[in-house]
Amino acid sequence: QVQLVESGGGSVQSGGSLRLSCVSSGSPDNCMGWFRQAPGKEREGVAAIDSYDSTAYTDSVKGRFTISRDTAKNTLDLQMNSLKPEDTAIYYCAAAQFRCVGSRLRDYYEYKYWGQGTHVTVSS
Asked: What distance in Å separates the CA atoms of residue 14 and residue 11, rounded to the nearest whole number?
């Protein structure tokens, strides 16, 4: 069983930055991604990274968020800049059971393992 543990959430003002980290006990180069779920809304894919470090982002965060991984430390990060109130949500790290190729956002069902979530609150 792969375990994912997120950290780095918190409260910031609009325009601020946060860096989320996820430590994984699984294979360091499997498909991974970040999702978020705001109150009353469906879970949304935010960013994804394939086994060759190609990345993909949802339109609303392009140019502001950066997903990256450190295979030596087996961590997945999400650098979030220019945060907006609409970025407020619980953010989840997700990992698949396999390697993958292709820079695209993957659906939630393509990931088998999930972290417990970390809260991000952006105030105006």
From this structure: 10
**Per-residue pLDDT tens digits for 24-73:** 999 989 999 999 999 999 999 999 999 999 999 999 999 999 999 999 99
Neighbours of 65 (CB within 10 A): 21
Amino acid letter for position 104: R
118-123 and 89-95 strand pairing = antiparallel
Largest CA distance in the chain: 40
Amino acid present at 119 = H
Helix (H, G, I), strand (E, B) or coil at 93: strand
At 72-93, the pLDDT tens digits run 999 999 999 999 999 999 999 9
Residues paired with 44 in a beta bridge: 36
Residue 62 to residue 89: CA distance in whole angstroms: 17
